[in-house]
Input
Amino acid sequence: MDRLNIDKVAKLAHVSRSVVSRVINNHPNVSEEARQRVMEVVEKYNYRPNSVARSLATRSTYQIGVLTSRIGEESLGNGYWSLLYLGIFEECIRRGYYVHFSFYSSTMADELHQYLLNEHHLDGVICLNEEVTDFTVKKLAEKEIPIVLVGHNPAYPEICSVDVNNYDGAYKAAKHLIELGHKQVGGIFGDQNVQETEHRIKGFKAAFEDAGLPTNEESISVGSYSQRDGYRTMNRWIKKYPEMTALFCASDTIAMGALLALYENKITVPDKFSVVGFDGLPISRYLIPPLTTVAQPTYGKGEKAAQLLIDSINNREKDAVHLNLEPKLVIRKSTAPVKNQGA
Amino acid sequence: MDRLNIDKVAKLAHVSRSVVSRVINNHPNVSEEARQRVMEVVEKYNYRPNSVARSLATRSTYQIGVLTSRIGEESLGNGYWSLLYLGIFEECIRRGYYVHFSFYSSTMADELHQYLLNEHHLDGVICLNEEVTDFTVKKLAEKEIPIVLVGHNPAYPEICSVDVNNYDGAYKAAKHLIELGHKQVGGIFGDQNVQETEHRIKGFKAAFEDAGLPTNEESISVGSYSQRDGYRTMNRWIKKYPEMTALFCASDTIAMGALLALYENKITVPDKFSVVGFDGLPISRYLIPPLTTVAQPTYGKGEKAAQLLIDSINNREKDAVHLNLEPKLVIRKSTAPVKNQGA
DNA sequence: TTGTAAGCGTTATCAC
DNA sequence: GTGATAACGCTTACAA
Output
């Protein structure tokens, strides 16, 4: 049997192609009888409308793009992206959309732009991080393609975004360390120029202020979300700040690097030093020692982003929404009370 | 300026739409003069043909699907998938294809099948693992949609596949341990019923046989590629086989789990116990201690898979190719010579 | 070498 | 409630 199309179905059901189209699209104004006949044929032959033809006729593809930057292998490999993407993907499938997952790199920016912005006709785009340049955002907006950002970006108040409450997350982590008696605490943060970092730093400091403890600007470092960065910074600090007893890392990957530096310097965790991460990656429970971390609902972020996007595809007028999800401190084995430091 | 289409370009360039089409598609039989005129307009207005319309006319979408199973979060989060996908994605973009990344789960199988097999018209599909059921493969084959498997599957000799030389990889790992003097070596493997596992086990055993050493069937376990599995099995073995001095894990994730079990039991690595992983994940160098592992060209596997797929989309006749890439032993800090075991 | 015209499989508009 | 018919934007014989 050859591939079915709407005309063949119409013929088999003894109706016109318009009736078939109406049935398929759940339009009103079709008699129960006709609907029956059509559905029978549809089921019998498992007919599905050709989405390409439909897209051409409706000017909407039911495809959305997910854009992230092609950062180094290390960060790529941490599982955060897969989980975020999974959340997006499953929500989209549930709502009848299909997803393109693209990595944005400077070397491929051109090809990608051509595809994304000109040839392909996406119904919407989710940008997973800031490296996705202004250019992209502007071009997309020009074409009136709805966008959702994962991670708030104050530069685009009119674009919907989803993020975790970064201030709270960092505050909880710092508070936990303070309650364990730590006073000299370092903080290693990721991406500069990103609101996320700003908020995490603020939350971190606020916890100390609220506890009436001084904070040392010098022991706050901003680099990148990589193991490498955590490793290097921690190595430096071990020499520079021998009195430091705990560390807050703005990602679990940073914490991994820091943990390794500590291990190599024979500083046992949590006996002599405490470490808190951020993200709650699936692997964090298998670090040595299992990492205390601020878990974010990564899958949920993806899910919400997809929801916002599809909603705004369906009704353009709505105001921009900026969602904040709550992170949660997960206490494991990398933190413990300070030793030999009576008040 | 309204959105351009082929007719408007034709008008602006004072030629017919077919000439424009020929220029766009690099067909011969168009005068240099006409080509010039068309190109000028194309560049001036940055015209790109609508890929949807083109797909409808040519019956090919220039889109391929990548299918993997939605395994547990842990395995998802290990970075292997992202890297594999990245390889596929970038090769596809270079060759003008666009990629859908889909997770196959039993709960969503229906929606996905409808999409993949009926509504959407993919030019080809790459299956990343075996959980992608027979059903899918058969349906795809029925529609004459080219497929490439990542990981050989003897059940489908007629389908192209890419894999790493699993026998060699495991052999190298075992040989390394043997050369360090280890004689009681356990092996934890992943997925059952998969050729990959069979070959890794064979390679593992062969190294011992070649060294004239006995192998103990009991200390070979086959479970899943998860930290959890490595953790549990190692925990059991610590009690059961106190004489064991080394372990080969069929994935870095399994090794992570084993490392944690060892740590919790205060068995220091590599002083008292050696561990070798498999995969060479980006994170493996940040484990504690940094993991000796059999590195596979994960990105390269993806790249090759995409190449094979696009090749077979373009010329259907070719015989099935089964590529084997070479893995490479990367020696780090989790392996050392056995202690207190003279001969 | 160029242009005309017939698809590709839908949706959408309008008479009926 | 139904059925022609004209889009949608492109490719591709075929004729000129």
Q: What stands out?
A: Residues 15-19, 22, 29-31, 34, 53, 55-59 of chain A lie near DNA strand D (CB under 10 Å from a C1'). The CA atoms of residues 4 and 47 of chain A lie 6 Å apart.
